[in-house]
TrEMBL record:
The chain crosses the membrane at residues 21-41, 53-74, 81-99. This is Uncharacterized protein. The keyword Membrane applies. Keywords: Membrane, Transmembrane, Transmembrane helix. It comes from Bradyrhizobium lablabi. The lineage of its organism: Bacteria, Pseudomonadati, Pseudomonadota, Alphaproteobacteria, Hyphomicrobiales.
């Protein structure tokens, strides 16, 4: 009976650590998404807001990857999936941000 309680506590610890990792990844993606508004906003006197197309694309990545990750963290379900989904979002952000 003692070993069963030990296994349950280890599972709980693993679940909480993945939840914290998922929350950190989602927070990093959210912070970067907010940063893109400042970084890509056209300066005064420029010829237009063509750069805002990139902000829309990055906003779509935020909605596809980070909103579900935040939702899974909030309801405390599938923390490993939330972590993996958030990491995929960070990779997608990096690919779009570093594109020429």
């Amino acid at each position: 009976m003692r070993s069963i309680a030990r296994i349950d506590s280890m599972t709980l610890f693993d679940r909480l650590s993945f939840r914290k990792i998922a929350a950190f990844v989602a927070a990093a993606g959210t912070a970067f998404w907010i940063y893109t508004f400042q970084a890509l906003y056209p300066p005064p006197g420029s010829d237009g807001g063509f750069h805002l197309i990139a902000v829309l694309l990055l906003g779509a990545i935020f909605g596809i990857f980070f909103l579900p990750a935040w939702f899974l963290v909030a309801i405390d379900r599938l923390p490993r999936l939330a972590t993996a989904w958030g990491l995929c979002g960070l990779i997608a952000f990096a690919v779009i941000w570093l594109a020429p």
